[in-house]
Amino acid sequence: MISLLTEDMSNAIDCIDMSKQDQEIIRDILYQERQNKERAWSSDAEKYIIKLIDDNVKEGATE
Amino acid sequence: MIALHHIAIKQFRAYENIAINFDNNTGVILMHGDNGSGKSTLLNAINWCLYGDTPFYTTTAVTAVLNKHAPQGAVAEVEIIASIEDKKYRFYRKASSDVAHGGILEVSYEANGNWSVLDGASGNDAVRRILPKDIRHLFFFNGERLKDIFTHNNEHDLKSSVYKVAELNVIDNAIDHIKSVENFYLKQISQVSRNAQKIDQLKDAKETFEASLLGHDEVLEDYKKEKRDYKLEIAELDKIIKDTALARQYISQRDSIKERLGEIDNRLQNAKLNRIELFQKNYHKLLLLQNTKDYKAELESASNAGIIPPPINPEVTSEILRNGVCICGRCIGDKEREFIEKQHDDYKAKDELRFLTDGILTFANLDSKVRDIKFELTDVMDSIQDDTEKKKDLQEQLTKINETLSEIDASKMHDNPEARRTKLENKISNLDMLIGGAANNKLAVQEKLHEVEKDLKKNISEDRSTDHLEQKRLTAERLRQKLLECKVLMESSIRDKLKKSVWQTFSTILPDTNFIEINIDERYDITLLANDGTIYTTNILSVGQTKALGLSLTYGLSKDLGYSEIPLLIDNLYGDLSESHYADVTNIVSALAVDKQVIIMDLNIDKTESLFKGDIVSQRFHIKRSANDNQTVIEEIA
User: Same domain, yes or no, for B61 and B198?
Assistant: First the structure.
């Protein structure tokens, strides 16, 4: 099976200063982008990201 | 480790039916053949099997894959057996003349000596693991096109290749998508802000309409009040008109009564005068009559008793009666009384009887006379009494009329109340029109107000704070920035790796030059600075040097970016190369073949094989046309 992210991607995400939450979202987004790169999925991608951010902001709001 | 083990081709272009096996997982496999023998077709067959296309042909018609000498109903088939790690996969694609050019792929894997077919998604995943389609040009290529890597704006140039191999384009796509999400939030924020503005505008509009409505109410109230006043005035006028008519009627009655009273007064006055006159004229007669009647009664009484009353001189009596002189003691003078008394004795004896007779006759006449007088007096008295009663009635009526008239307020009497009334009715009619207009205006304003209130309610229900949206937008922006940072970091790392490869290659192909600095710019143009100040770019390289550098970069990309295990399949590696650069290219290929399979297809196997040192070449094949020249065959050379 295809790995979640390339090694360089994982390294870069680990090296950049950001919160764990942001890291998780970025990993999630990049994984989906890799999975779907061979098809037109811009509309779905935007919906997916919006959901991730909405959930994230909601969680942040309830904390 | 990824390696090809078996390739079988049936009815694919010039291949009727061939099968070849590769024994080793690494090393160079040399395949030589003349121009047109089928080398490129082999490359296409492998591409077609894995990806369903034939990038080394210009046409995509199904006839491009089906053998033109194939029997009716035959199908083009390509089978590749490869190993990924320690597992074997079978990639099999077939296409008949009635299906599309891409045909149908079937992927299976070996488990316990049996082949199990994978579902579509898992099959595609296995293809990706062999070699992702978007970077296949770095592994399956025509050597003559290696220079494309240094030509900008094509999908095989260095930047595109780096982006595909390192999957920087994945990050770019993610950045683009997050940017779209930011725009989405911006639009929402803008919409919410516009909504807030709209709410303010609607509130202003509502206030305006409400004020306007109040204004209309005031106008309407004024009109209605004016109308009420006019109606009251009309009611008053109606009363005045009625009172005036009544007063006129009473005045007429009063005048009539007054006239009748005057008549009655005149009549009464005359009657009273008549009565006085009559009474005066007949008073003595009546008095005498009364006395006479008394005397007669006395006579009759005396006669009945046998007593003879004192006689009365009939002449005197007649005279008295004629003259109307009273014979009673009260109104007769003393002389007359004396006279009568003296005479009385003289006539007493003589004419006693005649006197009585006369007396009775006289009395009879007198009665008749008195009756006439009484009748006459009675008539007069009755007339007076009637008129007096009538007068009394009329005076009572007059009193009532005067009382009624005094109740009518003369000051309110109008000269021409009917005209004033008509004028007022016209005014009311005009007011009704104004009221109708004002009511319509009010209704229109009410409708507008209703619409505004409805919009306001809707907008208020949709109203929300932009804080949450702004927070989300900022999150998206932050994620995009972080991804950009990731991309910069990854690209920097890749550049460093590329620089190393380029540096090594340039040092190899230009061994007499001492390089001190290397730069790869945004467009991935490569620049090297030599210690003598000379600047070297890819433009100055010969075809061989370019090919060597291209191979070096391919090697660098495949090795440093985790694709070192993928086999290389190169057509025409030496095709356009001068012999002076054979060694450079061969050295690079040899280095690559240490870790992977490198299949090289070229014209002259003897020339190329002599270049490889040691036992790096593992197998040799000859691609050629069959005896009848219709089909391609591949023979392994011992």
Answer: no
pLDDT, one tens digit per residue, over B16-32 is: 999 999 999 899 999 99
Do B104 and B190 reside in the same domain of the chain?
Answer: no
Residue B171 belongs to some domain of the structure = no
Please count the structural domains in chain B.
2
Q: Give me the pLDDT at residue B45, please.
A: 93
Average pLDDT, chain B: 82
CATH of the domain at B185: 1.10.287
Kindly tell me the burial class for residue B623, based on how many C-beta atoms sit within 10 Å of its own C-beta (0-12, 13-18, 19 or more). Answer: buried
Range of the domain at B8: 1-131+563-638
CATH of the domain at B5: 3.40.50.300
Cα separations (Å) of B234 from A21, B182, B224, B435, B474? Answer: 87, 76, 15, 19, 77
Strand B526-530, strand B515-520: pairing: antiparallel
CB pairs under 8 A between A and B: 97
Query: How close B552 gets to chain A, by Cα (Å)?
Result: 20
What's the CA gap between B169 and B564, in Å, rounded? 20
The alpha carbon of residue B52 and the mean position of all alpha carbons in its chain are separated, in whole angstroms, by: 54
Give the span between the Cα atoms of B414 and B531, in whole angstroms: 129
Q: Which among B173, B475, B493 is the nearest to A37, CB-wise?
A: B173
Residues of A with CB under 8 A from a CB of B: 1-2, 6-9, 11-13, 15-16, 18, 22, 25-26, 29-30, 33-34, 37-38, 42, 45-46, 49-50, 53-54, 56-57, 60-61
Of A16, A38, A46, the CB nearest to B486: A16
B498 reaches A (C-beta below 8 A)? no
Q: Assess if residue B455 is contained within a domain.
A: no
What does the DSSP 8-state code read for residue B455? Answer: H
Cβ <8 Å between A30 and B487: no
* pLDDT tens sequence across B256-277: 999 999 999 998 888 888 877 8
Q: Are residues B120 and B181 in the same domain?
A: no
- Evaluate the CA torsion angle B576, B609, B593, B25 in order and state its sign: positive
Q: Is residue B145 part of a domain?
A: no
Considering only CA atoms, which of B29, B16, B84, B48 is closest in space to residue B571? Answer: B29
Has residue B528 been placed in a domain?
Answer: no
ipTM beyond 0.85?
yes
In this prediction the pTM is 0.60
CA atoms within 13 A on the CB side of B572: 18
The one-character DSSP state at B465 is -
8 Å CB contact between B48 and B12: yes
